[in-house]
C-alpha cells in the first residue's frame, strides 16, 4: 500500500532539506501527524516567517529578521578585519569559535564557470567597493571552502581586492582544514585553529 497523498506531499517537502533521505522524510511525515494543533500552527508560523521576516543585511549579506544587523551595527566589533565567507552557516561557526570579533561579508556562493557563475553573481563588486572605501580596514581574511570552486573563488577574490588596495593584508584560513572541506560542516574548534593559523595570500 502506498502512502496517502497528504503524507506523500509531506515526505516530498521534507526530502528537499539537506541530509534528509526517503526513510527519514517518511519518519518525519508520520511524526508530524501526531503533532497537536498548536504545535502545527507554531511550525507553520515559523516557516512563514522565513518569507515574511527574514532578509539580507545590505552591508554584509547576513540573514537578519530585524531592522538592524547584530554584526554591522555592533559598535564593539573590530572594523580593522573582515572575513569573507560563502555562506551564513559558516559565519555561525566563526561566532561560536569565539576567536573572531571583526566584521563579515558573505558572498552569494562560489565562482563556477561550468554553472555560469562569475564574480558578478557572487556579489564581488559589492565587496570590492566596500573594501576600497573602508578607511579602517587593515586585513581581509578569505574563508572559502577548500574545494576546487572554493580555491578558484579565493584566488579571484584576492586578485580583485589586491587591485583596489595593494597595501591591504589579505590572508586565508590554514591549519586544520582537510582538502575538499565544506566549511559549514567543519566544527568550531577546527575553525578557531584555522583562523589563528591563517596565512597571508600572495599573487601568482
UniProtKB/TrEMBL annotation:
It comes from the Bacteria. The keyword S-adenosyl-L-methionine does not apply. Keywords: DNA damage, DNA recombination, DNA repair, Metal-binding, Zinc, Zinc-finger. InterPro entries: DNA_Rcmb_RecR, Rcmb_RecR, TOPRIM_dom. The keyword Flavoprotein does not apply. GO terms for biological process: DNA recombination; DNA repair. A zinc finger (C4-type) spans 57-72. Belongs to the RecR family. This is Recombination protein RecR. It comes from Candidatus Scatoplasma merdavium. The lineage of its organism: Bacteria, Bacillati, Bacillota, Bacilli, Bacillales.
